Amino acid sequence: MDKPYYRHFFKPQLENPILVEGLPGFGNVGKIAAQFLIEFTHAKVFAELYSPFFPDYVIVNKNGICRPPRYEFHVASTEEKQFIILTGDSQPSLEDLLAHYDLCDEILDFAENYGCNFIATMGGVPTSKSEGEVYVAATSDKLALKSVDQGALIYGKGRIMGATGLLLGLAKKRGWKGICLLGATTGITADKETARQVFNLLLKALELDAKENLKSIKGKR
């Protein structure tokens, strides 16, 4: 394999969906929060992305069956909003800058083909002692302050490593709007509680209510 390729299970019919990213990272906050959203919306996998930029190992299940690392694109819908939820097994090495840029552009190209122009990314931010803080960075003051009103703190004068930050920055250059939610975590273990706090703030940011009538996505097989 010398370039990324997709495996499609069906083609969802979407209109201006929101791209939500939650990939492995510090404390696995983003990935766990994305899984909460997948379960909340009953999202379904509609495509997988395989890439030579992923680490050089395979993942083996409990039955001893192996597969290469991959990203998964899930699709879900409520009465008023549609979502593409990105999660996966790993990210490229932090030292491989070209891989990060190429893969993030690949993801944004894929999402744009479905009409995406808004992105929400999620991850963890290192802290010596977590007290439940969730930070926000955004593509505009208006979006950042909206999350502050909902309980977030401004993430200022810092860096957001990996896809969680780079996807937001590259999306802004394309004219997208978006936010990044970062949960403060020690990162010693997978931080499910911090991920839940990020997820709860994401629901507010996306104006999702637990009482929403969640619909199943119709697609072309």
Index terms:
221 residues, globular, alpha/beta, disordered C terminus, Rossmann fold, 5 helices, two-stranded antiparallel ribbon
Q: What average pLDDT do the residues reach?
A: 91
What is the H/E string?
A: EEEHEEEEEHEEHEHEHE
Count of domain modules: 1
Supply the CATH class: Alpha Beta
Low-confidence residue ranges: 213-221
- Summarize the main sheet: 9 strands, mixed
Counting DSSP E segments of at least 2 residues, the number of strands comes to: 13
If you compute it from the alpha carbons, what radius of gyration comes out, rounded to the nearest whole angstrom? Answer: 17 Å
Would you identify the CATH H-level superfamily?
PAC-like subunit
Describe the structure.
The chain is α/β, with parallel strands linked by helices and 221 residues long. It has a single domain (5-207), classed as 3-Layer(aba) Sandwich (Rossmann fold), CATH 3.40.50. Helices cover 29% and strands 28% of the residues. The chain is built from 5 helices and 13 strands. Strands 1-4-7-8-3-9-12-10-11 form a 9-stranded mixed sheet, with helices on both faces. Helix 3 links the parallel strand 10 (134-138) and strand 11. The protein is globular, with a radius of gyration of 17 Å. Residues 213-221 have low confidence and may be disordered.
